[in-house]
Amino acid sequence: MKTLYLGTNTKMYKTCAETGAYLSALSAQIEQKKLAQEEVQFFVIPSFTALHQARGLCGQRILLGAQNMAWEERGALTGEVSPLMLKEAGVDVVELGHSERRHILGETDEQINAKVLCALRNQFIVLLCIGENAQQKRDGISDEILRIQLKLGLRGVGAGQMSSLWIAYEPVWAIGENGIPASKEYAEQKHQVIRQTLCELFGARAGNGMPILYGGSVNAENAAQLIHMPHIDGLFIGRSAWDANKFSALIDQVLTQFREDNANTSNT
Ligand code: PGA
Description:
Layout: E1 4-9, H1 16-32, E2 40-45, H2 51-57, E3 62-66, H3 83-88, E4 93-96, H4 99-103, H5 109-121, E5 125-130, H6 134-138, H7 142-153, E6 165-169, H8 184-202, H9 204-209, E7 212-215, H10 223-227, E8 234-237, H11 244-267
Parallel strand pairs: 1-2, 1-8, 2-3, 3-4, 4-5, 5-6, 6-7, 7-8
Helix pairs in contact: 1-2, 1-11, 7-8
The protein binds 2-phosphoglycolic acid.
2-phosphoglycolic acid binds next to β8.
């Protein structure tokens, strides 16, 4: 059975207390849904300071993520967080290369690549975020940018490590308050470019098996339409997931579409 991936990064918006309340409510809502084993993989990526507490509230269904990680296990790296510390906090997933880290904090593909290799070495699932900005889209080089970010970000990754790798396609122009969500057709086409590049890099088997999630102004209006597209395996949601009740309602909508699509596929 195909797995649906649904998760959120709470960015720098929730304190420990807020994360705790959010996760308690969300876990309870998810528990009530009648989900088959492995039907949906949920994940929540809170602030570093909330990780320890969040671990106990994730339950069986939600993987716990970190928003960033250092590229070495130990070192004179003031202000960085080591993979060993994330392991100790019970983290499952490490998000790397989010647009805000690339564009506000100046992270390069080379730095992101070093982090990807370090996270894989430490047995985390890596959620690598990629996406073109508005100027690159206007210049008609979005596909090239995605291919470059994948090739540089995944340099040195072996085909054997691919089962621990998830990709999030998040066009920079679609993210946040001023973002315009990508149309389902546009997102689908970019997911195909990503899929093709992964297959070129790692072979068809590994490349086809890797989840590719869409992120950028996902909301209650577009979530089900996006998940209906054949190459979109999941959604990486910001603002629309930060209220547990609203996220739960969005999950229900997406799940209905996902189940319908799966039933149609198995009937053909
Ligand atoms: P948004 O955030 O859904 O609020 O646009 C997406 C993201 O930054 O991953």
